[in-house]
Design a protein that fits this description.
This protein is an alpha/beta fold. The chain has helices spanning about 1-10, 30-40, 75-80, 80-85, and strands spanning about 15-20, 55, 65, 90-95, 110-115, 120-125. The protein has a single domain (about 1-125), classed as P-loop containing nucleotide triphosphate hydrolases (Rossmann fold), CATH 3.40.50.300. About 30% of the residues are buried.
């Protein structure tokens, strides 16, 4: 998954939003690790499940990595400064984005992560 995230980095630009959906353990955070590394940030990428958002600065783009899993409402997301992050000129990556799809901009790229019976993982772009 990290290789796929790394490969996708060439297609992101300032104010890009990538929405990640899929079950626990499907590879969303590993994909993000590859993306952040490819953008030149040397920080260790971890799941923001409990902190809700991590910031990775120092690469070609600042990366704002959200996890909506533990949030109960769109108001909770907005209280984190969601609008400010969207306007900050970086890359916004959102795990569990399907919890509040109405908050994502229309041009967000949606990716679906899945785990097959043989434990292999796949990622597919959603239309």
């Amino acid at each position: 998954m990290t290789d796929l995230g790394h490969a996708a980095a060439g297609g992101v630009h300032a104010n890009s939003v990538v929405a990640l959906v899929g079950d626990l353990g499907a590879g969303k955070t590993h994909w993000t690790k590859g993306m952040v590394a490819a953008l030149g940030c040397q920080l260790d990428v971890t799941s923001p499940t409990f902190s809700l958002v991590h910031e990775y600065r120092g690469g070609r783009l600042d990366v704002f990595h959200f996890d909506f899993y533990r949030l109960e409402s769109a108001a909770d997301v907005l209280a984190l400064g969601w609008d400010e992050y969207l306007e900050a000129g970086g890359l916004v990556i959102v795990e569990w984005a399907d919890k509040f799809p109405e908050l994502l901009p229309p041009d967000a790229v949606w990716l679906h992560f899945s785990v097959a019976a043989d434990a292999s993982r796949t990622v597919a772009r959603l239309a």
